[in-house]
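Chain and conformation:
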Amino acid sequence: MPLMQYSPFASLQNLARQRDAREPCELCGAGLSSAHQHLIEPATRKLLCACEACALLFDSPTRTNYKRVPRRLRQLTRFQITDGEWDSLAIPIGVAFFFQSSPQNATVVIYPSPAGATESHLSFESWRDIAERNSALARMEPDVEGLLVNRLGLPRAAAEYYIAPIDRCYELVGTLRAHWRGLSGGAAVWERVGRFFEQLRSQAALEPTHA
């Protein structure tokens, strides 16, 4: 799997900070609430803050430069992946997210490392075998939803798998990048990651991954 350093962090860092309630819509300039909408530009993966009216303009299958990021969040309660399959993905840490990139026509995985967030393209065979047993992955919307994985607690705690809006996935990556210290990340960053997944757990709807 070819690796590259993941670079468009300006949007991620904005998401990791507390937002001004009067932050402007990046399309029309209208003031935004803290719970506003996001758009993404798939070609660059740049996230934009948008008001409800502007976001609705991109809430259709019509091809545009931007896509509206959905707000649904689902925890997959019966996700099936073996330890061997996870190891075959060559992800050296237990937290990562996967999404289908339309511009690259590939499944992409992003995970943290001492050098920053790292991006890798999965082989078709690796992803196909996992996707065939987990039907929820076929229902993920390209570019705007990702499979967010938390295996940090193994073997003491169960692994967690979510279909999450892509802005929430990037929020986690931005938090990791902002607070990572040294080779292992440091205690502070893993405490923040723990709080992030606690919040996700409390907000997510439960969904089995296969019929």
Remarks:
- The first strand starts at residue 3 and ends at 5.
- Residues 2-6 have pLDDT under 50 and may be disordered.
- The two ends are 31 Å apart (CA to CA).
- The chain is about 30% helix and 25% strand.
